[in-house]
Amino acid sequence: MPESSGYEHGRYEGVRRNLRFWIRVVAGMTVKIDSFEGAENIPAEGPLLLYSNHISLIDPVMIIHAVQRNIVPLAKIETYAYPVIGMFPRLWHVIPVQRGEVDRRALQGCLDVLRAGEIVWVAPEGTRRPALLEAKDGMAYLAAKTGVPLMPIAVDGTIGFPVLPFSRRRIQGPGVTLKFGRRFRFKPLENPRDRASLHKMTLEAMYILSAILPPERRGNFADLSRGTVETIEWLD
Fold first, then answer.
1. CA separation for the pair 182, 209 (Å, rounded)
2. 148-173 tens-digit pLDDT
3. Is 171 exposed, middle or buried (0-12, 13-18, 19+ CB in 10 A)?
4. What are the extents of the domains in the chain?
5. How far is CA 26 from CA 22, 100, 164, 171, in A?
6. Quick check: 162 and 154 in contact, CB under 8 A?
7. Which residues contact 151 (CB under 8 A, 6 or more apart)?
8. Is 32 exposed, middle or buried (0-12, 13-18, 19+ CB in 10 A)?
């Protein structure tokens, strides 16, 4: 997969490295972390498409915390306007997404990052939900277009954080858990715009994610017997 001239990750490495340090400092004081399972299985180099359920504003921050490499998340464009918090996506150079439409600029931004050999994180549903609902096909399109591997992440326990350092929620309540699943890639697709094939790929990827989530987070994908792997090639 050739490197794109549209994204030069070296320009952002220093800033992201510093931000990661502060994320870990602040998270250590304001978030209770129970476990990051399987993060060590992420390859040390090469492109990767991470995808997860999305239940809280801090989900991508926790994933950045857990992964040893710098990743580039997607975020709704409104996030840039949040007081104080909006500084983070600007400094990190998060990929902004216009919700409710096919955002070609965001898709191109993802393609550029993946072609530069880096990691992109997406929430296939496109919004925060307590349990899985139907997902959009943008993730499958990116994977079909580039051939990059994917890895699911089951996110739980992030709702209600961050909190004050000595709050009861942080000391006594359940903490954040991230579970990284097996890497896979989709079988080659002759036409990356074939909607029926992309939708099938999306469904299969969502059932793979659902299988590593707690039952109460599985939502529309609770019946795991309906999950197939006809478009999937396992890598781990």
1. 10
2. 999 999 999 999 999 999 999 999 99
3. exposed
4. 9-234
5. 6, 33, 10, 15
6. no
7. 41, 42, 48, 49, 50, 51, 180, 181, 182, 183, 184
8. buried
Say whether pTM exceeds 0.90: yes
- Which of these, 76, 65, 69, lies nearest to 9 by C-alpha position? 69
Checking if the pLDDT of 235 tops 60, the result is yes
Q: Structure tokens of 57? A: 């504003």
Mean pLDDT of the chain: 93
CA dihedral 183, 188, 191, 195 (to 10 degrees): -40
Cβ atoms 200, 137 nearer than 8 A? no
- Alpha carbon distance 30, 39 (integer Å): 21
Instruction: Name 37's bridge partners.
Output: 179
- Strands annotated E in 48-126: 48-52, 71-76, 95-97, 119-122
CATH number of 9-234: 3.40.1130
pLDDT for 217 equals 98
Here the tokens at position 34 are: 């129970």
What token pair was written down for 50? 């991470």
Going by C-alpha positions, the residue among 152, 139, 134 that lies closest to residue 110 is: 139
Confidence of residue 83 (pLDDT cuts 50, 70, 90): confident
**Worst-scoring range by mean pLDDT, 45-54, 163-172, 218-227?**
163-172
CB 157 within 8 A of CB 214: no
| Percentage with pLDDT > 90 across the chain | 81
Structure tokens at 134: 């139907």
